[in-house]
Amino acid sequence: MLFGAxxxxxxKYMNFASKMPSLRIDxxxxxxxxxxxxxxxxxxxxxxxxxxxxxxxxxxxAEKASSNxxxxxxxxxxxxxxxGTKQASHSSFSKFxxxxxxxxxTLAKKANLLKFSVFKKSSTDDHDHSERxxxxxxxxxxxxxxxxxxxxxxxxxxxxETDRDARVFVHSFIMDVMKCANVxxxxxxxxxxxxxxxxxxxxxxxxxxxxxxxxxxxxLLMDFVEKHAMNYLHDLPSVVFSPSGTDDERLDRAMSExxxxxxxxxxxxxxxxxxxxxxxxxxxxxxxISELLGMDSASSPGGKLTRVRRCCRxxxxxxxxxxxxxxxxxxxxxxxxxxxxxxxxxNINFVTRFCxxxxxxxxxxxxxxxxxxxxxxxxxNLTAESLNMDKKEFDCYMSMPASIGGSAWAAALxxxxxxxxxxxxxxxxxxxxxxxxxMSERAAALHADAVCFQEQIAKKVEDVxxxxxxxxxxxxxxxxxxxxxTAIVTPLIDLExxxxxxxxxxxxxxESRPLVGYTVPSEDNSQSSQPTIADPVPNVEKDSxxxxxxxxxxxxxxxxxxxxxxxxxAKQGTQETEPKLNIxxxxxxxxxSPPKSPQNLDQTWQLKQTxxxxxxxxxxxxxxxxxxxxxxxxxxxxxxxxxxxxxGLSNINYDIDxxxxxxxxxxxxxxxxxxxxxxSPEGLKKAFDPFAPQxxxxxxxxxxxxxxxxxxxxxxxxxxxxxxxxxxxxxxxSPERKEGSSILDDSDSPTTACLLPxxxxxxxxxxx
Amino acid sequence: xxxxxxxHEMLQIMTSGPYNYSYIFKYIIIGDMGVGKSCLLHQFTDKxxxxxxxxxxxxxxxxxxxxxxxxxxxxxxxxxxxxxxxxAVTRSYYRGAAGALMVYDITRRSxxxxxxxxxxxxxxxxxxxxxxxxxxxxSDLDGQRDVTYEEAKQFADENGxxxxxxxxxxxxxxxxxxxxxxxxxxxxxQDGRLDLNAAESGVQHKPASPGxxxxxxxxxxxxxxx
Lengths: 768, 226
Prior knowledge:
The complex is a heterodimer. Chain A is mostly helical.
């Protein structure tokens, strides 16, 4: 028993399996699944119409219950990828082999679908049943949308009603075909489709909507309608393309095998004027074959016709000029033989049945398609006689393995394909090269931009520095002045309150003072004079300066200086005179500076120059008294009061400057200071030595560099040797500090603590 | 019924624009290889002899608009392959041809001898109203004549064909052959012998007249849910 059941099942399986390929169906399989003795229909899921309707109602209710809105939509969704692959294949014809492979794939797919549609008894096949539900089948919105879009692009001038009519027609057309596909034979269906075409034609001729449309546009509209209707139907399995009930597929296979067998047929057998050695000839043949292969991927009859037309154009070019049908047909036969287009018979039958007959009968596409039909039927019926060759030879060729025959042409074509590929590669390489070139260009541009940017930034930084550094300079020079002032005045609080402009004045006066009036600084000078010798530059300058000083000294009376200061000219005069005066005392200062920061000497000097200028410029107001006083030393009491205000502000700055220049001086001078001020001894020595040389030199270096340039320009306007003069001025202060070291010391401590005065100093610089 | 329809069409035709054609006639040119089918076609469509302009390609499908009795008619002429071995497969050419130009070479008797088989094919493969026109080509080569005019004329008369000797090279009688055929076809349309609605008739009617609305009511709705 057990065995028997097994046997039965296996038998059933075998039966089923054997049935599959032959597509032959047992009569019982055709009966309604409900067993109501009526015949079922695969489109009705194996039910008879009555049972199917009941089933549908049930299903619809169930669907409603489950509220599945996309019940009718699965079809388009499923179709999309399919079409995508088709178009992908459509776009690349570079390889025949690939094409054929894909074709065989689609064949297999189609065969599968066919099997399903025939054998499916279960309701597992969703898309099929949704598509075949006759009463509620709906043309997917995709078709409608696609038509709308296409219509707008192709017939922008036509009105909305024509668009609507076309869509309505396509809709009804598809519905009609879907409905009839299962009950009619292919020929009947073809006739029906042709009648539908004619009806639309007539509708266009008679309808008011198309009154303004000329006949050419009507033809285009006809093509448009046909295209969209057939585009959809084409992809449905076994409806219009190799429909069930025909042996199109078998013929396809037979034709493919036949063509393979005939691969040995060459151009001489067909007496066509083809030259394999000609590159142009090969290229044309290659193109023609590509188009022919592309026919299968077009899904509307019009699209297929277009392919055929293009193919034949190439073939005509292949034949050379002047070409006639006597040349075209053999060449086309040859092309078909070499191309071995997939599903050739199915395609031809599809076009013949469902293309608008009018178009097929007339028009270029129809003409070439007819030629193709002739070529195919020639190949089908090819005999020894039709090739004008001996029967024996023919049989010999036919018995030959298919792979041997067309090797020459196959080689030529593969060569062609390879060359084409190479060409494509070359183009791609060129594109890449161009890209690379563009890239490098842009990189260069970017580099240039970066450099430009850097320069701009640098310039801006310089500008900013040029403006800001001024603050720093005054600090150094001022300290000396302040110290001197402080030395004189002592009160720190007062100094802060005092306006900056006053300071420079004091400085100048003080400078002059030590030189002339005090013996102590002169002593310092003598001490410091030795180091000055070490520095060549300063020495030379000194000489020249000393000369000038002598001259100026003679020229400078205190009274005259007072007058000059008020006017511009006076300023210059004072500058000249003052430096000279200072120079005497200056030597003392210079000596200390070189050992500390020999490299920065020039820069520091320059800075001092600029600062000195600034100092000088603001000074004019309080200047006269100082100069006179410095020279004469008579003014001291009166001016001290006025001076005292100014120095207070600059105290802190002075400290820094001191550190720079007068390490030695300070040391030398310290002892006296210590005696005077209780604060000074520790503060001076400690603060001065470490501070002076390092921080100024290192920290301000950069700033100073740029600064100096700008300041120089300003100074230059005044004079070339101003720098030195200034330096001298500055230096002279140091001696003063020594004098007032006690005060300076006090100031030193505050300087470290508070850099506040520095901001004030710029004001002084601004004034000039 | 037909007469009424025709008069109606006539009206439309009369008002059609100058560049619009009312009909499309399909011709086929048949005959042995080398009788000059393509040359005749080229001479007719381009008014040139093919040998003069060798660069011309694709002449086998020619169209030209002619005027017959005030009607613009577009002729679509299909050249066919004449080789004997293709005879069996070229039947689809004949489908829907309104006119058939049967060509032989007056300098080659064999081409004349094949006429009967060509005629048989044509008769078998076209509809009865198809107009068949016999053309003896290469009339400019009178010195090498192999077939006399009288002989061919007699053959034509016996088979009810129109006949003319023409030269594709000089253009002599070429125009006439095509025009006469068109006239004959048009005549048969007028007579109602040719059914315009049949796809096989080889004639397409283009009743559209731009800017002229038709009095006819709109056709039955296409969106009927049949």
